[in-house]
Amino acid sequence: MFLCTVCTVLAELRQSEARRLKRLHVELDGNSSLRIVYDLYNPQALAWASFKDATLQEGWAYLHIETNPNFPDELTAYAAGVLEAEATRSLISKQIQNRYSKYCSNLQRVTCKRIGRYLQKQVNYMYRRALSGRKKSAFWNQIYLLLKQFTGLNDHFNGAVLQSGNRFNASEPLTMMIINWEGDLLGIEQVLPMIWPVRDGITKKSSRINTKRGSRIPGLYVRDSRSETGNSSYLSLPPGHCSALIKYVDDNIYIGHTSWFDYDSMIRIEKKYDFAFRLRDDASPSMVPGRRLVMTSYPGCLYSLDEFYLIGSGLFVMETTLDVFDQWILRRCRVKSVPTWMRSMAANRLSASGEEWVRHFSQENSGTYNNQYMIVDFNKFETNGRTVADDVLWVVEQMPGTFVSRDLSSVLRGKGFFASFNVPYFEEIRKINRLQDFEAFTTFYKYETNPRKLIFDRDQDGVESVSSMMNLMRYNDYKNDNLSTCGECKPPTRVATFAIAARADLIDLEKHPIYIFKGLSGATDAKAIDFNGFKRQRIALVNGPPNENVPTFSWNDTGLPTPAGHPDKFDFPIVIHDFEESLHDRAPDESQTRCGGDVMIDDEVDEKIINNNTSRMQV
């Protein structure tokens, strides 16, 4: 009787899921035109997609796209972009309304024109290099395919005729480029006055970057995340943009990450890309090692932006952002380059080891969106008896014109953990960035005394499961934790951003130095995996700021309108979503309910509710 009841509940839940799940594909309509078809399965489609929008129920939408290896890669890449625009159009439109619609109007007009010129020059350079080099260079072939995927996304979202031969032209509207170059724009906005003289009526005083070496104003580029009208006025992040931890214990590796971002960004999509791309544009049948990847992402964004990737090659990749404080080194940024987001995606697809990932990523440095990347090789971890052998953990840090990278497996093996908190690990990078100029008057930018570093050192011993990792990545008890104290504040004050998961909206601006500010930003999510979760491509996820020891974030409390597509209150549960193994090999009745045997509950999860292919996890 119990098993029958479980089967009935499963059947009803999956029928409800089927009503919410979109299935679609792109197929050829003539020689080069494309058309989108819903529901019907076509094994000869260029690409297939499934999409479920559970943003108001679970905090996440779920997108799965797979390309057909029997067609040319440039054709299927374009089709993949078209499918993403079609499936997620509503969420993209809401994200634009909330976050990007006022971007150019909030900048001086000539500044936005400069950004357009910069991006046009960069795209033209990439096309020129990719078209001439993709037959011999695996790197340039992947850059070309990313440009084709982006073209498909941009074409269909903006209503262009879907022709596989279309080439992207970086002219207005810039919206889709702003979405995808958002991380890189953090650097581009800073460097533009250096590479192009001030003109067109813009005064030097209003646009010049302070290039004095060793500037002692850490908050020079920190601005409130939202204006009084509730619109994002700048694409900016607070000092410190993410927290991350890798923990080795009991023959397992646990990984956690929390993104620090503006609260108007909290429409989230977990994505699975299964792109059957070849290494090069030649007759070789060799496929990229990173054909499949799962990532946390955003509407219209063809990469993670969180930079949180589970890759089918056996690699896991994540990052935390590094600010550029010595403005002098921004002169090393190059227009003729490849933006960070494209280099990371190319490296994800091409690499079978951490060292390979660093080598691919280090090409064509743009000097924009400078990060510390951590690459965990779960293949080496598994083949060495689930121990941290050499080359299990590689770390690379980027600054304009510079990379420093090393195998840091010995650190993970010796200490049992590696923490990341937006301060460079490598002394060379700290010196290049002149962080010593800030260490004299603040603990925030000093590696050994950074508040998050101290909290990680103290609390990492408690991580022994995905649940406990999620607890740590959501940790903010600033009112009671002495490690959250700002010692240089007058008087010394506990600060809501001196925590693993920041809450800048809880800051009292009058009490703090310039680099600590009040704004509608902070930790907007948490993610965690272990070895088994990586193998199954399952991420424990939660959307929204932390709320265990601090108030639950509510738009109603801000006095601002709730952004489009957002709930008023962010109190979502932790969820784990299971993507289908394949869309190409899907049998016509695969989505039907099948019951029989035992109902298994994962030991890792305290409570698991079967709901729309997504597990809810209480921790």
Automatic annotation (TrEMBL):
Record EC number: 3.1.1.-
GO molecular function terms noted in the UniProt entry: phospholipase activity
One of the GO biological process terms: phospholipid catabolic process
InterPro entries the UniProt entry points to: PLipase_B-like
Top EC group: hydrolase
Sorted UniProt keywords: Glycoprotein, Hydrolase, Lipid degradation, Lipid metabolism, Signal
Function, as annotated: Putative phospholipase.
PANTHER family: PHOSPHOLIPASE B-LIKE 2-RELATED, PHOSPHOLIPASE B-RELATED
Name of this protein: Phospholipase B-like
Taxonomic placement: Eukaryota, Metazoa, Ecdysozoa, Arthropoda, Chelicerata
